Amino acid sequence: MKEQVPTIGALHWARRNLFATRLDAAVTIGLLIVLVATVLPVLDWAVVSATWFGSDGTSCRAANAGACWPFVGAKFNQFVFGRFPSAEQWRVLLVFALGGGTLAWLAWRQAPRKGLAALFLLAVFPFLAALLLVGGVLGLPYVETNLWGGLLITLVVAFVGIVASLPLGILLALGRQSSLPVVRLASVAFIEFWRAVPLVIFLFMASNMLPLFFPAGVSVDKLVRALVVVALFSSAYMAEVVRGGLQAVPKGQLEAALSLGMGYWRAMVFVVLPQALRHVLPGIVNTFVGLFKDTSLVYVIGLFDMLGVITVNLTDPVWFSAQTAATGYVFVAFVFWVFCFAMSRYSVRLEASLGQSQSDRAALTHMR
Q: What topology does CATH give the domain 77-84+143-367?
């Protein structure tokens, strides 16, 4: 009697997707061996042999000790706030709550008044966040930016870069396709200049060389200089992504909008750009993810980000051990992964939602 092969369940899925042929079975078994050989030592280091409790690095100095998680717990405040004064850290938490709550509201599909939430995030939140973090008004003590650090610095640089790079990138992409030679050449020169040099070089120049050109007695905050550099750098890459989307939109779309009496800018905003941005949504999110990871480079100009927390504490004799640095880097890597993965998954959901909406409109048009 022939063996009955189940048509549902995990066993059926495995036979169909992992062991359908001999080659599939060989590849699956090989990958499983590699996975086990890789994951088991990591789990042993991070969980089984790890040190979970302790007030210093003494227990982390054992011969076969794994990750030193007490170090992360002891320095967690620095990982989040840097050297921000303890009595004023509620201001940072309030900024995190306002920004995170607004983003969650925008990410919620059925949320009402999303336009109002977007307006708050782009027009009100940056000024409110700057007022809370810097202080000096309304009875809030002034906090210098050289005391900012950790996750705070990472999110500030990422938020400013993301919010500024998209509109600047759109303008540069439109300028690169302009019929005016001066506008087109200026846009091309800007894009190629910023894309041809590594970000770390621009950060060094903004930190060390730019102050030499300021008049006597004039200075610009180091964090502000870094924010401007990151925004301009990422806008050059964003411009090329948006330009790809513009080229994917048929020229007839713009011509049809112009023939209906729309002006150039109105046709671009309401007809061409929505289609172009939908085409290149994965590329836009990829640029945002790259920008978020590049925020770690601000450490090289003396801004105290999460990597700076690890480097500074490597010389702390209380926590000196062979596992301290590795544990800190793993923790920071996990934090970056959480944020980047969240952006990636939201992009997938948004892309699927936009694709479904477009399919529904096409079906409705066909019915009509």
A: MetI-like fold (1.10.3720)
Give residue 358's pLDDT. 54
Q: Where are the domains of the chain?
A: 77-84+143-367
Taking the C-alpha atoms of residue 204 and residue 217, their distance in angstroms, rounded to an integer, is 21
* Neighbour tally for 16: CB within 10 Å: 12
Question: What confidence score (pLDDT) does residue 355 get?
Answer: 64
H helix runs in 196-323, sequence order: 199-204, 222-248, 251-259, 264-267, 273-279, 281-294, 306-313
pLDDT at residue 366, as a whole number: 47
For residues 68 and 46, the answer to whether their CB atoms sit within 8 Å is: no
Provide the b/e sequence for 170-182 (b: ≥16 CB within 10 Å). Answer: bebbbbbeeeeee
Phi, psi for 68 (deg, rounded to 5):
-105, 80
Express the helix, strand and coil content of the chain in percent, nearest 5 each. 75, 0, 25
Instruction: Divide the 368 residues of the chain into consecutive groups of 10 and give the mean pLDDT of each group.
Output: 57 79 86 88 87 83 84 91 92 94 86 86 91 89 91 93 93 90 93 92 86 74 90 94 91 86 86 89 90 90 86 83 88 93 87 62 47
